Amino acid sequence: MRLLVIRPGGLGDLLVSLPALAHLAERLRAEVEIAGDPERLALLEGSPYATRCLSLEALGLHALFTPDPTPEVLSRLRLYGAIVSWFGAGDPVYRAHLEALGRPVVIACGTPAPEARVHVSRHLLLTLSPLVPPPPEIPPVRLAPTARERQETEAWCRARGVDPERLVLLHPGAGGASKRWPAERFAALSRRLGEEGLVPAVLGGPADREAVGALRAAGAPGLPLALDLGLRRLLALSALARGFVGNDSGLTHLAAVAGTPTLALFGPTDPVIWSPLGPASRVLVARPLGGDPWGDLPPERVLAACLEIAGATGRAA
Q1: CA nearest 85: which of 121, 34, 40?
Q2: Less CB within 10 Å around the terminal CB: N or C of the chain?
Q3: Which whole number is the average pLDDT over 168-191?
Q4: For residue 245, which of 163, 161, 185 has the smallest C-alpha distance?
Q5: Share above pLDDT 70 across residues of the chain, in percent, rounded to a whole number
Q6: CATH number of domain containing 91
Q7: Is residue 8 part of a domain?
Q8: Which distant-in-sequence residues (6+ apart) come within 8 Å of 147 by Cβ?
């Protein structure tokens, strides 16, 4: 059976969807095709989570929000034996058009209600109940670079004087300024990691220029590895690294599903809902002190946790 999953949103939204995609493919023995952002969906190439990735825009779903969608869009959707849409749940016109296709359809919000305090991946699994019973536990997920991507990234690191075996990635960015651990604390952490014999390196996407600039201005000696690397290269870089420290962000989720020892720093957002998935991920939650929302999360506390997850309790070899 061909099954269409409609999943817009950011990088983190896609990655927390992986358990649900895995569950659909396994239980329904379906060919799962996913529609979303093409750049982010490139991460699923060669993975067990999707047999085909589609551009959400090219699918023409905007027509389903009008009274009379084009026949081409409806014909395209009828090719699927079932449809899961984590999109458009609040629009009755969109819902009516999908339900009129005569196929099993799930239309649900892509995030849980805040008061539910359930992890978003569990929420997505529960939305699939009309199609398949949810599993008792959240299925483990993993994304891996290809052997060629790994080799190219190793060479890329060494050409810049970075030893991947001592590399700790720092990601100072996040979707909102309030979610960012202060730049001066990231800078202090970077210096302390260097004193431990590790190689701290700063990375970020195009949206992180402000955060990376603030970190460099605060005196971080780390090498700024990426404002221009694609997600596949960032996946490979994360998979090589000894550790990763980041905020509640998509790149932190990416490091976690790459299997990297990952330390996620949470301030105003709820880790019960948004903690990253991964076999070696850990969360540090800040508690406000006075007017500082990150009050009890100083560099020393983060350093100790980082050395622990990176297997470097003393000076690195």
Answers
A1: 34
A2: C
A3: 94
A4: 185
A5: 96
A6: 3.40.50.2000
A7: yes
A8: none
Residues 114 and 31 in one domain: yes
Let me know whether 164 and 297 are in one domain.
Answer: yes
Query: Which structural domain, as residue segments, surrounds residue 72?
Result: 2-127
Evaluate if residue 117 carries a pLDDT over 80: yes
Tokens linked to 58: 């090219």
Q: Are 18 and 253 in contact (CB under 8 A)?
A: no
**93 with 173, same domain?**
no
How much is the CA Rg of the chain, to the nearest whole Å?
21
Q: For residue 135, what pLDDT is reported?
A: 96
Note whether 5 and 124 are within 8 A (CB): no
Q: Count the domains in the chain.
A: 2
The pLDDT tens digits for 186-223 are 999 999 999 999 999 998 888 898 998 898 888 876 66
Q: Does 265 lie in the same domain as 225?
A: yes
User: Which pLDDT does position 222 carry in this prediction?
Assistant: 65
Main-chain dihedrals φ then ψ at residue 252, nearest 5 degrees? -65, -40
pTM of the entire predicted model: 0.94
Euclidean distance between CA atoms 43 and 33, whole angstroms: 14
Pair 26, 122 in one domain: yes
- Crossing angle of the two packed helices 299-309 and 183-195, in degrees rounded to 10: 50
